[in-house]
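Cross-posting from the modeling subforum.

Setting up a comparison between two proteins and wanted a second pair of eyes on the formatting. Protein 1 (sequence, then structure tokens):
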Amino acid sequence: MADIEQGSSAALPTEGTPLQDANDTDALNGTAAKFVATAEGTALAYGSLVLMALLPIFFGALRSVSSSKSKNSSDMPETITSRDAARFPIIASCTLFGLYLFFKIFSQEYINLLLSMYFFVLGILALSHTMSPFMNRVFPANLPNKQYQLLFTQGSGESKEEIVNYEFDTKDLICLGISSVVGVWYVLKKHWVANNLFGLAFALNGVELLHLNNVSTGCILLGGLFVYDVFWVFGTNVMVTVAKSFEAPIKLVFPQDLLERGLDASNFAMLGLGDVVIPGIFIALLLRFDVSLKNNSRTYFYTSFFAYIFGLGFTIFIMHTFKHAQPALLYLVPACIGFPVVVALVKGELTEMFRYEESSPEVEASPKEEKTESDKDK
């Protein structure tokens, strides 16, 4: 699971929280009576998790193409380099173990209270950003759409420096209001529907705004988190313990007893957001590579997208068969990398795929700035 925050490539440590079912939850809690899901409830829960995982990947990838060309600072993506990718699993591991110790030493109630406030703010902003394109389409044309600006400066006169310069309009305020209602609902009730709304928003924003600069970087990132995920799930109980103790919308959940108890259901299958966002940013990169080919084909995007479906489906099959929480990246990483590589080999475009380089907006802007300055000198 990941806490995707605009302007940062950091991730919370539950980056590969295992796919888990209700029986695993009971085992962790040490309860005597296990919940036994019906076949219908299990199929509904697993199917819903797969659908919820696919939605932010598909739409986030499409939106990543637009964000890569955006000139709006709030929509500009952050580019992950190979150095960032190599350090990512190490930082995530340290943070994961640190959280594990926190939950062992300090009261879980107080830690989760602080986390709830933190994710309350982040969730509102993420959900508001997610809703913005939809609001632009449905906002009535006859209603006034007023423009606003939030400006904080430091100093005065010629030394005045902008700290915050945020422009928004009436549509943004409506999105913020709706998101705030969901936020209050989540803080007060911790309802699984509110959790999923925030989780989907985090995932979509992550896929949209976190960009890999090339395929090699994607392979380094996925490969490192593959090892990270397997070690912390199979090698220790740290990952599963933190996932269960961590009350924050950084996992997608769906009840296996929904048919019996409705919205009050409480026995969940869960999927960490890291298992959505990490493969998702790689799939989004391949979509942007498809666009760069300019042949109106989305071969690599659809290949990797269906590879993700295959990998997640195989994860669910293994988990259901062995009745044990599974590190989803163990199956997702080989599928999401292997399938597109095979297609590239068949099409003779493997070299071209690995040579594809995506620069950050700042890097792309710098040559123009240098040219402007040289023109001024002339």
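Protein 2 (same layout):
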Amino acid sequence: MGGIFIDGKFILSIIFALWRMCLAKETPANFVFGDSLVEVGNNNYIPSLSKADYPPNGIDFGKPTGRYTNARTVIDIIGQSALGLKEFTPPYLAPTTAGPVILRGVNYASGGGGILNETGKIYVGRINMDAQIDNFANTRQDIISSIGLPAAVELLRRALFSVTIGSNDFLSNYLVPVITEVKRKLIPPETFVGILIARFRLQLTRLYNLGARKMVVINLGPIGCIPFEREVNLVADPDKCAEFPNQLARSFNAKLRTLVTELNKNLPGAKFVYGNVHSIVEDIIENYISYGFENTNSACCSVVGRYGGLISCGPQPSMVCEDRSKYVFWDPYHPSDASNMIIARRLLYGNSSDISPMNIVQLLQAS
């Protein structure tokens, strides 16, 4: 009696192909680009003056992790809530970020990093946006090698990409006290903003060309309201923010919104959304009592200054507020976990004033 012989290697190849197809349709991967607002430890692995791998950073994690806050970043929370990730998206430079781990996503963000390669020179080591995209290109190739090109394309098409960058191009470049006064005289604000947007257009387009389709582009928060800018601009009224930095942020944000619209129009299949964190943080600051905060202008982790904003949070002699949930800002530059929770929630579920043309939940559901 005859029978059908099926080669074992053939069966294994079919099983592997089905596994790759299923993998690409599971929980979307999370790829994160940006600065210290979303960093999770890349700077731990490079020589840099911008680090957060020491206490009291991470105090509510029980240990420092490289995050510039008392616990989670906005993207940490989004990964947990929207993507159902059991573990936080790991830093690219961590030795353990290899193999199957990268199929769930990678965080490329770096404290001190900016859109321009010159940004953050005062910190010596940092990974700017161009280099972050280079690192993603390496990850992409590793994914292709692991699961094949068709499955990799599908994984990236469904993945959530987020970009949170630009603050340092002002805080650690154009607005550095004393050092950049000549630059500000030679390059008017509108010209500088135009340079940033032109460079950012190329970077976001490059990410698209590497496979990114669902991307959240976060605008600049009201940088004139952070404790550091209140200090260096000699803001006497605790209810007032520094106006010039906020003017720059608004100018950048207006052009960024136009850029996101332009890219959606010109890049087939692109679903880029504009995250209006500026408006969200302004609302938190203006209506802080209704959000459960008691302090909206000072750093919870402070060293010196009226607002605790003159020196970065570090080991001794930093003073840490007893109840972090009552402070909008963790340190001179960064929001607390409590603020990040509000920001994340509004990016996930908010209306068009918070994020447009759709929120993150709707973006992930989009075909």
